[in-house]
Amino acid sequence: MENSKGLTSFQGKIVLVTGSSRGIGAAIAIEFARLGAKVALHGRDQAAIKAVQDIISAAGGHVVSVMADLNKFDEVEAMRGQVEQELGMVDILVANAGGSFTLPAPLEDIPEAGWRASVDGNLTVTFLTLKSFLPGMKERRSGQIITIASSAGRIPSAMAPIPYGAAKAAVIMLTQDVAAQAGPFGVRVNCVAPETILTERNISRIPVPQQKSMAEAHLIKRLGTPDDVAHAVVFLASENASWITGIVMDVAGGAVMV
């Protein structure tokens, strides 16, 4: 079955999106639910998760929510157990959880705590999430994994928050190494790397004049939306991408060409 956009239906598929209480993760979860998937939301803000869950439920979607600190492997394992008990084995894992925990600054001014927070909050959480879910996919010889990196891990910039860019670049290499290991088991692993996305947080913190000037740096003269990222993720998880693995898809309006 195909929907009106030509993408294979995800009817009956079970999807977990980490970091899906708001922003890009929420948009990804909502899009999978719209296409028929059973979706597990994850986050640490119960009220924010419930808001997304209510949106999906109101549209007739099948959704549950889980909470876990992804820096703690025992909590990741407990999260997997809960999802499997409530929905079943995860077919599609979107490792979206992450964020920037320092401001742009010269390297020598970056606090050690900020560096460790960025590495743990992006790279370590992705590693532990894949470590938990990949074995089952390999055993079943089926599954899709999509990680979320960033243009900050693709192009160097003196204005970039260095710990964030370094961690996201490492997520990319982690993704491709895992794709090489998992491919023979029928598991596809890909990465989406967004540029500036107008999430609720970015809309509130970036003044409109600055948004307009930033848009001019893109070949497509606008900034991205969470839905732009969601559509890319859904494509990579679909059967239309069944011979694609180990790639980095830049969702960047032409600002990144690698």
Give a short summary of the structure.
With 258 residues, the chain is of the alpha/beta class. Helix content is 45%, strand content 15%. It has a single domain (14-198, 226-250), classed as NAD(P)-binding Rossmann-like Domain (Rossmann fold, 3-Layer(aba) Sandwich).
Structural topology:
Layout: E1 14-17, H1 23-34, E2 38-43, H2 46-58, E3 62-67, H3 73-86, E4 92-95, H4 112-140, E5 143-148, H5 162-182, E6 187-194, H6 200-205, H7 208-215, H8 226-237, E7 248-251
Parallel strand pairs: 1-2, 1-4, 2-3, 4-5, 5-6, 6-7
Helix pairs in contact: 1-8, 3-4, 4-5
Structure description:
- The protein has helices at residues 23-34, 46-58, 73-86, 112-140, 162-182, 200-205, 208-215, 226-237; strands at 14-17, 38-43, 62-67, 92-95, 143-148, 187-194, 248-251.
- α1 (23-34) packs across α8, α3 packs parallel to α4 (112-140) and α4 runs parallel beside α5 (162-182).
- The two termini are 34 Å apart.
- The chain has one domain (14-198, 226-250): 3-Layer(aba) Sandwich (Rossmann fold).
- It has a seven-stranded parallel β-sheet, with helices on both faces.
- It is α/β, with parallel strands linked by helices and 258 residues long.
- The protein contains eight helices and seven strands; from the N terminus they run βαβαβαβαβαβαααβ.
- The protein is globular and about 45 Å long.
Number of helices: 8
CATH topology category name: Rossmann fold
End-to-end CA span:
34 Å
Total domain count: 1
Q: CATH architecture, please?
A: 3-Layer(aba) Sandwich
Please report the total strand number as a whole number. Answer: 7
User: What share of the residues does DSSP label as strand, in percent?
Assistant: 5-15%
Shape: globular
Q: Assembly state here? A: single chain
**Segments where pLDDT lies below 50 for 5+ residues?**
1-5
Main sheet summary? 7 strands, parallel
Helix and strand string, N-terminal first?
EHEHEHEHEHEHHHE
Structural class: alpha/beta
Cross-sheet strand order for the largest sheet: 3-2-1-4-5-6-7
> Which percent range fits the helix content?
40-55%
Overall CATH class: Alpha Beta
